Amino acid sequence: MQTTHSLHVGDAQQMSAIGEGSVHLVVTSPPYPMVEMWDATFGELVPGLADLIQGQRGMDAFEAMHRALDAVWTECHRVLVPGGFACINIGDATRSIGGEFCLYPNQARIVAGLLRVGLTPLPDILWRKPTNAPNKFMGSGMLPAGAYVTYEHEYILIFRKGGKRQFTGDDRSLRAESAFFWEERNLWFSDLWMDLKGADQGLTQGGPRERSAAFPFELPYRLVNMYSLRGETVLDPFAGTGTTLAAALAAGRSSLGYERMAAFQPLVAAALAGAVEVGRRRASERLIAHEAFIRGRADQGKQCKHRSRHYGFPVVTRQEVDLRFTAPLATRVVGDGVVATHGYVGPI
């Protein structure tokens, strides 16, 4: 099996080249409105933004930034297949403007924008960001009536285009092979993720990385496996250093990204190259973890009624019987993109 992966340098608002209903999943993390590191980026998209901030009109600036994002959500709705998913990683912002400390609710405003374009909201996920900051508290310390809660979580908003996807013919077989393990389902489909580590340094080294705000590789890797089938197309309209594209390659999906900063191109290329080894490792880790899980069940006297057709080990449910992992074997540059070759992963 082969997948294709490409990055377009330019505004995500300019996705008109993508065919309507040709993308199966959107996984992205946009620049966060009212987080100071993104002021310059939004300033290029929103005329007069600096005047709003300097004029202490924080909420007007917040709304202007989100209107720039709204155009992207409109395009995401257009390019998604019926029943396709959009997963948006976003955090709220806290900021003092004119001496007034305020929360800027990015999560709520993006939900409103996604609803406005016609996407259907589904239960979301909170993921807790690890922090080692020794002095992470805001406000008046131990004195009451002046301290602020410190945010250590972000949201993964999950929306769908219309009702459930319909699968017929070959898609049903592909869906069965693209299944995940029962114990992965129990972990991944929890509304609270606390076990995510930082961005994989093997995928995002050097250059302007400090401006990328890259999320952990495991975050898009899970979402890609949860909400798409092998070989389908994943879109990231704010590609950054290419973490989503790398996760799609590792999981055997095609990908398409947009990124305004041309300086990120070498990092995306490195991420896609590194995803070959990461994809092999993750596939092996998942199989090893499942066999350990089955041994643990056996030690507790719990038996599985079903057996994997391809791997021979027990599985908990009938839906896992045809599950079959692939892993990337190699990549090659073709034009402006990358073609990855994948093969089935055998028993460990």
Summarize the structure.
With 348 residues, the chain is α/β, with parallel strands linked by helices. It is 33% helix and 26% strand.
Distance linking N and C termini:
21 Å
Report the biggest beta sheet as strand number plus sense, adding barrel if it closes. Answer: 10 strands, mixed
Oligomerization status of the protein chains: single chain
C-alpha geometry? globular
SS element count, helices: 9
- Along the chain, the helix and strand elements come as EEHHHEEEHEEEEHHEHEHEHEEEE
Given the helix and strand composition, which structural class is it? Answer: alpha/beta
Q: In total, how many beta strands?
A: 16
Q: pLDDT under 50 segments (min length 5)?
A: 201-206
Task: Give the strand order of the largest sheet, numbering strands 1, 2, ... along the chain.
Answer: 10-6-9-3-2-11-12-1-16-15
- What is the radius of gyration computed over CA atoms, rounded to a whole number of angstroms? 21 Å
Strand content: 25-35%
The domain count comes to 1
How is this fold's topology laid out?
Layout: E1 2-9, E2 23-28, H1 39-45, H2 49-54, H3 58-79, E3 80-90, E4 93-97, E5 100-104, H4 106-116, E6 120-128, E7 138-139, E8 147-148, E9 153-160, H5 170-177, H6 182-188, E10 192-193, H7 218-227, E11 233-236, H8 243-250, E12 254-259, H9 265-299, E13 306-307, E14 314-315, E15 326-334, E16 337-344
Parallel strand pairs: 1-12, 2-3, 2-11, 6-10, 11-12
Antiparallel strand pairs: 1-16, 3-9, 4-5, 6-9, 7-8, 13-14, 15-16
